[in-house]
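Customer escalation, tier 2.

The customer says the design service returned an amino acid string that "doesn't look like it belongs to this structure." They asked us to rerun it and document both sides in this ticket. The original structure tokens are below, unchanged.
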């Protein structure tokens, strides 16, 4: 009777070992069959009660059952161990032959792009590109441009004054002066750059924006020359015919002075926030260089004259890409910038 139950226990346990899927299941089988309170241990304790003629036989049976189960447990355990190792290796597998993802490429800001385009265009017309400081002296930003301290035109541009009397340039026109001083006539130059105005910000006003200054000094320069260059400029910028109008404009450093407006390309002239509902956008103030300005920079106005213009680069970008709020341009929002 005992013989049979030992054999049954052994074969039942071997079957459970074979079908165990995890180390936990396997351990449960071990405890059930071989544990201190398990049937084999129990039977071992009761050996003493057996009739002597049975003891040796039952003892052998118990031993071999124990050995068989221990062996089966051991080899199954090894199998499960390496199985979980394989699972781990599977999870950690990676294809080292895959090409690495490249670095994410950025692109130029739309203002930089238009600036470079215009630099190329003007280079082809014989204009040098000059640079000037963003922190300027009162002399270059105002006085040398025929705007003395008591002149009401100083109020036309709200200025960020710095400690010590310097200022953030309110326009790129001081580079005209630096160009005249350094290079002298004849002169063809442009000066793109950042300018600053102390004014409240809205859809069409920023405290920081971009201009592109231009100046040509030669003999017998006339308004006709000015118009030729301005038309060439606008055609290159917009790749199409744009409607323009010329109004008299006042700037102390040009005489006569003009405001060249273009019909708003955002609303087509019907009125929107960018054109302040007027249908026109002030894009290009210009004029013939005031003789006082030439004189202050050491150029004889009897011999030389010229034209100057100050293109609003920021506004130009807004026209070209139909951007209806100037604050997007310097806002740093990638969702905006990634559209270009
Ligand atoms: N500097 C002027 C401004 O910013 C623009 C300008 C430049 C006008 C050159 C005439 C000639 O308002």
């Amino acid at each position: 009777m005992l013989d049979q139950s030992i054999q049954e226990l052994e074969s039942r346990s071997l079957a459970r070992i074979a079908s165990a899927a995890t180390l936990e299941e396997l351990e449960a089988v071990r405890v059930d069959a071989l544990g201190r309170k398990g049937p084999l241990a129990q039977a071992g304790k009761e050996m003493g009660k057996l009739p002597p003629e049975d003891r040796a036989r039952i003892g052998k049976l118990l031993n071999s059952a124990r050995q068989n189960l221990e062996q089966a447990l051991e080899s199954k355990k090894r199998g499960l161990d390496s199985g979980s190792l394989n699972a781990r290796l599977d999870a950690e597998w990676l294809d080292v032959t895959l090409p690495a993802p490249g670095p994410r490429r950025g692109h130029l800001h739309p203002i930089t792009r238009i600036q470079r385009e215009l630099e190329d265009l003007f280079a082809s017309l014989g204009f040098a590109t000059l640079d000037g400081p963003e922190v300027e002296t009162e002399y270059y930003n105002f006085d040398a441009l025929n705007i003395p301290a008591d002149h009401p035109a100083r109020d036309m541009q709200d200025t960020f004054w710095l400690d010590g009397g310097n200022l953030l340039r309110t326009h790129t026109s001081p580079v005209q002066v630096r160009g005249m001083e350094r290079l002298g006539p004849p002169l063809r130059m442009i000066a793109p750059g950042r300018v600053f105005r102390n004014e409240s910000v809205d859809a069409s006003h920023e405290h920081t924006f971009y201009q592109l200054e231009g100046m040509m000094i030669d003999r017998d320069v006339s308004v006709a020359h000015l118009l030729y260059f301005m038309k060439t400029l606008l055609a290159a910028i917009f790749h199409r015919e744009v409607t323009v109008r010329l109004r008299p404009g006042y700037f102390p450093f040009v005489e006569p002075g003009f405001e060249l407006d273009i019909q708003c390309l955002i609303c087509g002239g019907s009125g929107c926030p960018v054109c302040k509902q007027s249908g026109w956008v002030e894009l290009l103030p210009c004029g013939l260089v005031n003789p006082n300005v030439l004189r202050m920079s050491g150029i004889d106005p009897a011999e030389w004259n010229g034209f100057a213009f100050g293109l609003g680069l920021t506004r130009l970008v807004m026209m070209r890409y139909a951007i209806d709020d100037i604050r997007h341009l310097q806002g740093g929002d990638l969702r905006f910038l990634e559209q270009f």
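Tier 2 assessment: The sequence is consistent with the input. Residues 67 and 73 are 10 Å apart (CA to CA). DSSP finds eleven helices and nine strands in the chain. Sent an explanation to the customer and offered a walkthrough call.
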